[in-house]
Amino acid sequence: MDISSGWDLVVLGSGPAGEAAAMQAAKGGLRVAVIDRREQLGGNCTHWGTIPSKALRHQVRQVIRSQRNPLLRGLINPRQVRWQDLIQRSGEVVDSQVQVRGDFYIRNRVRVFAGRGEIQSPGEVRVDDDAGRQWLLRTRHILIATGSRPYHPEDVDFDHPRIYDSDTLLRMNHTPRHILVYGAGVIGCEYTSIFTGLGMRVDLINSRQHLLDFLDTEISDALSYHLREQGATIRHSEQYSKLVADDDGVTLELQSGKRLRADALLWSNGRSGNTQNIGLENIGLEANSRGQLAVDERYQTAVEGVYAVGDVVGWPSLASASYDQGRFCAAGIVDGGPVKQVTDVPTGIYTIPGISSVGRTEQELTEARVPYEVGQAFFKNLARAQITGERVGMLKLLFHRDTLEVLGIHCFGYQAMEIVHVGQAVMRQPSPNNTINYFIDTTFNYPTMAEAYRVAAINGVNRVKR
Q1: pLDDT in tens, 328-348
Q2: CA 214 – CA 217 distance, rounded (Å)
Q3: Angstrom distance (rounded) from CA 106 to CA 162
Q4: Can you tell me the distance from the alpha carbon of 423 to that of 17, in angstroms, rounded to the nearest whole number?
Q5: H-helix or E-strand spanning residue 224
Q6: Can you give the C-alpha Rg of the chain in angstroms?
């Protein structure tokens, strides 16, 4: 075993949280090492989650848009697009991302150890690679950023070739005509819209009464409507009882007595933190039932000098927030000062159409008895949406009736994930600069989707002045 001393920070995991922490610490003058079992960098975000799924979505959207364009309609039949071909194209994007990420480590002189990392003590991490080599890294600080994986209940056979999770789905070598999606969270809804875009028959099983009930109710209802319009069957308030797979397909029995049969099943019912087999027991740490670790405001665990960021600490479990958690935690390690907290995280849901929101919902404002008003802009009335053919969707602004402070922004439709950031920038301004009047007094390019802010703001102010 080779002993390597003098490290300031050893990071377990090269996903968004680990990478951001490593780069921030290196720029702060620390000697940093990163451990990842995968020789290619980027973590689950790059290889199994965010990047490949969004690349798949983009390709399917292109197919859908071609069917809406009279000049292109008929050139591509969605039902003839093979899943394997989409995966191959997504792999090209993943490879490009790996190259970009690798350059970051080289430029910042961060050492990468490809292997399995196990914490031996608060100041030591052992690395075992596939070739049988071992290193013992001695360090002042340890950061756990190992991400998460799909949750697997014990009574579901995930080794069967007809049963998939969001990771193994990227290795599916056939194109189902009918697929069951169990779990209607963000991942389940995103893949449902991808499947229906390819002309597949989809049954989406939701254990709750509404889709994504953390969203503004109007936006959640809009998503339900459009998924059904695209051909999905949504089954609310259902729980599985038994899942049986054979050579020809999958049979899902629900507790309500329903029995569903399809060519394949995607299990998307939650995720678990990757905290198993990393040596937590050696330092007296224990993860909760979902593999998550408790941390304080500095992202430090109950063990001094051992930190955790990203999916392993739970909420919000978003790549965007993980980047910031990693940066903020590393900055605190470098200078010892107060650690910034991740707040006002925008929600980005890559369904077709997409959803994004930031701030409070109508339900929350009503329960808090805040006197608010609503301003709306429907995309079907915007020139840019009419030009692109993307007429489905809306932008909704929630603002205080008296102060005109922007309280919430909710967008459903084309470019929602981009549009939301215009309003987010205004919401982040201190009083009295956070005002809906900004959108009325500012000239927007025309025709653009961002123009929806001006339309929605005027609509809202007119309601107040009545």
Answers
A1: 999 999 999 999 999 889 999
A2: 8
A3: 41
A4: 26
A5: helix 217-229
A6: 24
pLDDT of residue 12 exceeding 70, the answer is yes
Report how far residue 119's alpha carbon sits from residue 278's, in angstroms, rounded to the nearest whole number: 6
| H or E element, residue 143 | strand 134-144
Residue type (1 letter), 168 = T
Burial class (CB in 10 A: 0-12, 13-18, 19+), 6: exposed
Instruction: Find the angle CA(318)-CA(238)-CA(346) to the nearest 5 degrees.
Output: 20
Asked if 293 and 319 touch (Cβ cutoff 8 Å), the reply is: no
b or e along 123-135 (b: 16 or more beta carbons within 10 Å of the residue's beta carbon)?
bbbbbbeeeeeeb
Q: Are the C-beta atoms of residues 266 and 188 closer than 8 Å to each other?
A: yes
> What band does 130 get if pLDDT is binned at 50, 70 and 90?
confident
Mean pLDDT of the region 20-24: 98
Contact (Cβ atoms closer than 8 angstroms) between residue 333 and residue 25: yes
Judge whether 104 and 23 are in contact, CB under 8 Å: yes
The tokens describing 390, both together, are 């993307």
Taking the C-alpha atoms of residue 21 and residue 34, their distance in angstroms, rounded to an integer, is 10
DSSP string across 266-287: EE-S-EEES-TTSSGGGGT---
Which of the 8 DSSP states describes residue 161? Answer: T
Note whether 145 and 15 are within 8 A (CB): yes
- Say which DSSP state 78 is in: G
**Which residues are within 8 A (CB) of 39 and not within 5 positions of it... i.e. 6 or more apart?**
114
Q: Is 299 helix (H, G, I), strand (E, B) or coil?
A: coil
Both tokens of residue 325? 């958690």
Report the sign of the C-alpha dihedral through residues 113, 326, 270, 78, in that order. Answer: negative
**And the tokens for 291?**
């593999």
432: tokens are 């009295």
Sequence-separated (6 or more) residues with CB below 8 Å from residue 401 = 371, 372, 373, 464
Between helix 217-229 and helix 186-197 the angle, nearest 10°, is 30
CA distances from 10 to 79, 122, 285 (A): 48, 11, 17
Query: What does the DSSP 8-state code read for residue 242?
Result: E
Token digits for 234? Answer: 């949504």
**Per-residue CA distances from 113 to 19, 39, 103, 130, 211 (Å):** 13, 8, 15, 11, 42
Which of 57, 66, 60, 55 has its CA nearest to residue 88?
Answer: 55
SS3 293: coil
Check: pTM over 0.85? Answer yes or no: yes
Distances (CA, A) of 132 to 33, 39, 425: 19, 15, 50
What are the φ/ψ torsions at residue 59 (nearest 5 degrees)?
Answer: -65, -40
